[in-house]
């Protein structure tokens, strides 16, 4: 059997174009449905410092908590369910676990608990699940809605899962947790029982002088624009020629040089409501600024989350990418690019 | 390519592109037996071309790839290669085992059809 070495792994890029003034625009739902965000990167051309209203939103991303060696059955604790899961949105994700080799757990804001297990662990747990879509031979997904009546504390399904996680498969792992809108107060009873630490998302500001940029991002093709944006984020110079030995990467044609641009990046467990607030403030900034300009916002999901958009299964394979870039213009138009790798379904 | 327009005015447009990326990007790190050995960017690229030539001959040595970024202290590099050349480049990196008579290995840290994905790798989140 011969192998085609010229074939690259599959990937998906969804490009949406619409306007914020359109009632049917789907930016809000896309933002909301990517639950576990690791990094937000904002680029503001011709800007050297963010205005105060934008700065306060950038600095106001919610804190998150890291709990050491949390037994997963604690997520089924009756008090935790009543104080946190049933009231508001809990974002929980296992930390430093790899979805292609380890057991990974995610607690989604809609109250769904998702466990990505290897075959042996799945058999030990003894709870209903499905084969992984991407690795059906050696991986299983257990996904339960904790707000469903069948999973109410004391119910049959609840007790079966609780027993499985307490005795047959006593999983415990470092866990990232956050709550909206309650914050730490709603999680305090759980935190108090374990070793935990509070973390603020880490923010880095940088002014980039004399930045080569596509002169008309609206008409620039998606792949070239995303590549250029990636080069800006990775501090890759584009002053090459086609005959350079090291690199022939150049800024897409019809380029212009910006006198400066502000790049802000925030890392941590970032909540979709905070990202949504940031988008609103960037739009406000674009409305107020006199220069003809645009802004781009890229949000990276966690590479090892067992889900990406909505409840869709997510795997790592080569890169684990699941991110979107929102390009916003002054006339309320937007371009939205949603990208996933080989072990992912098409974004909604 | 699927194009889905909600109405005739083209107010809402959604296009799904499958395997459309012309390039793939790799983040690689060179691990050398003698940790004090340093390579310049030109030396690193030449070393990788040597690996391609050893495995795929003159045709392999002609494979076009770019060294987008290189950190001499950590020996970490970002490479760009045409998607159809990814497997050739990756396999030759894997089989490169010796640099100037000392054992070495390339660790492929991340591979993606999107350069942006290499700037937001959650596996680099350290909270300790």
Description of the molecule:
The complex is a heterodimer of chains A (348) and B (128). With 348 residues, chain A is an alpha+beta fold. Chain A has 2 domains: 5-61 and 202-340, no CATH class; 64-199, no CATH class. Helix content of chain A is 23%, strand content 34%. In chain A, strands 7-8-6-5-4-9-3-10 form an 8-stranded antiparallel β-sheet. Chain A has a 7-stranded antiparallel β-sheet with strand order 1-15-14-13-2-12-11, with helices on both faces. In chain A, helix 1 (27-33) runs antiparallel to helix 8 (272-288), helix 2 (52-59) packs antiparallel against helix 8 (272-288) and helix 3 (78-85) runs antiparallel to helix 6 (184-191). Chain B has 2 helices and 7 strands; from the N terminus they run βββαββαββ. In chain B, helix 1 packs across helix 2 (86-95). The longest helix of chain B is centred in the middle third of the chain and has 21 residues, at 41-61. Chains A and B meet through strand 1, strand 2, helix 7 and strand 13 of A and strand 2, strand 3, helix 1, strand 4 and helix 2 of B. Strand 1 of chain A pairs antiparallel with strand 2 of chain B, so a sheet runs across the interface. Chain B: InterPro entries: Pop5/Rpp14/Rnp2-like. Chain B: It comes from Solea senegalensis.
